[in-house]
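Work Package 3 committed the consortium to producing structural models of liganded targets before the mid-term review. Because experimental data for this complex are still outstanding, the team generated a predictive model from sequence and the ligand definition alone, so that downstream docking and mutagenesis planning could proceed in parallel. The input record is reproduced below exactly as it was submitted to the modelling pipeline, together with the SMILES string for thiamine diphosphate.
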Amino acid sequence: MAANVTHDQMANAIRALSMDAVEKANSGHPGMPMGMADVATVLFRDVLKFDAADPAWPDRDRFVLSAGHGSMLLYSLFYLTGTGGMAIEDLKQFRQVGSKTPGHPEYRHTIGVETTTGPLGQGLATSIGMALAETMLAAEFGDLVDHHTFVIASDGDLEEGVSHEAISIAGHLRLNKLIVLWDNNSISIDGKTSLADSVDHVARFKAAGWRAAHIDGHDPKQVLRALRAAKRSDRPTMIACKTTIGFGLPTKAGTNKAHGEAPGAAEVAGARVNLHWPYEPFVVPDDILEAWRAVGRRGKSKRNRWRRLLKSKPPEIRAEFERRLAGELPKGLDEVIDAYKRKLAADAPEIATRKAGEAALKVIAPAAPELITGSADLTGSNNTKVEATREITPEDKSGRYIHWGIREHGMIAACNGLALHGGFIPSGASFLVFTDYCRPSLRLAALMGIRVCHVFTHDSIGLGEDGPTHQPVEHLASLRAMPNMFTFRPADSVETVECWQAALKMRRSPSILALTRQNLPALRRTHVAENLSARGAYEISPAAGKAAVSIFASGSEVSLAVAAQKLLAEKGVVARVVSVPCMDLFFEQKEAYRQSVIGDAPVKVGVEAAVRQGWDAIIGDGPFIGMKGFGESGPYKAVYEHFGITPQAVAEAALARL
Ligand SMILES: Cc1ncc(C[n+]2csc(CCOP(=O)(O)OP(=O)(O)O)c2C)c(N)n1
Ligand SMILES: [Mg+2]
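The resulting structure, written out as tokens with the ligand in place, is given here.
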């Protein structure tokens, strides 16, 4: 580092770039980067293990900017340290279409961004999964994995409900390599945080099992001391950094006016005076830039040492580590699944698809050690725990099953973190109706294009007695509406394992397996090597002749459709049945395949114990047998009768249209 460059100069480089970029874009959030510039400077300069030349180095420390609105902090640091080719021109393009510097940090879009942030609380909750991944991978691969996860979180991150779930999981699991720096500036958009919050957050973190303390976030010595202590802690650490939002702005500093708008020419000019930063916009003097670039090179020797360590490992360990980090599925998995499918076709078990899911996991989990399952306190209902997935405890992270507690949102966000960290394919589980409790994290997984394969059981009114609070109705439609989210609803044991296989193969998409509580008959009784479910829809019961009716159904309603086909046959009407285990995948198939599956029967009927939305793309204006309102408490067969979701109703609807 250039010896004559001071801490203030380095921190002010962040402040100046952040305010200049926001000013030029006439949009953005200068306050947070200007307030946290001192903390970030100490973290990056003195503590964070990273090498700007290789931002994806597996044993790097992870840095999560949970306060994603302060994205200019991250982009400034990338430019200053020379990470990912971030150029000064990119900073000048802040918030412009196609730029490397979008409004909030986006994973995959900008090199160095560890996770997409912006929806407050998500980065913090995701980081729990990253820290967990680190300790789990270390339990498996020893000294190859030894890094920390650092988070900058704002008041909003801590006020959001998901923070409660996240910090309680982290405290319980004693994720001591997780360090949260809270930008305790006491300001949010509406004004002082005291308008709406009087929580003692340090006490709250302590109550959740963290170490937590207050420091002055503008005193680099205090920041460094706190970070060093945190690295030695046997528990996760929260450092409450008292800062002034918009530090340097002459009139807006310390107020909500610094939060989220261009400061204006007078403020920017005044800040240049206050910060002793006389340089033109976007100009960082060579010596200061060089001091930062040296920070970017600081981790090179550590990275080289790590590479030598990896090389020194036995070839099979090294190969497995590299496979896991690359996200390649294990060799031989398809063969194992194929053999199992063959057996299922012969055995024809009549079980609920949640049980079929468990049976599939018994086959898949031993063959795919990267698969991590768990449940938000519904282990016995979701059936996602098998012998190969021993549970994780605060003392022992070598297991593969996570008891998340009743924390759906925290679970799904942490699953995102596990996937983002690398080395794992995480799977959370709960009831399908509670996808509403974690939708923001599901959405971020879809947006980021990461592989998480969740299991949501009790997928319809077919769950019966628990009634309408627990019976999903609009959930399938709403999940199908989410771009890049793949919702599977298998009809029997064979489809269930096929859906698992298809989900595991989608490296850039999250997926959901919606599984039943109630038993279903086996429909796929002839072995077919091809994964038919991976096509999204296929003819499961062909017509005996030229079809007058096509019946389309998913999951538990496929067997009902097959029963309706028989009723129609008794009336001399030829029908065929198409199973639609994944509408999202079906719509991605080639036109010719789609047309062949939809077919040209004059009547197309849809059956799904859920709302109609989405089905028109298959059945046009054909009749739909499903739900129009909320469910009803009762034995499931009676509930199906009550809502008229029966083979008779399907047959009658078809006959009425003929
Ligand atoms: C879930 C969610 N709700 C609302 C917002 C809009 N929003 C962005 S920042 C912010 C709060 C700003 O306060 P703070 O988190 O303290 O950030 P600071 O102003 O201190 O930078 C809000 C409400 C959001 N990004 N995410
Ligand atoms: Mg704030």
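Reviewers should note the following from the model. DSSP finds 26 helices and 21 strands in the chain. These observations will guide the Year 2 experiments.
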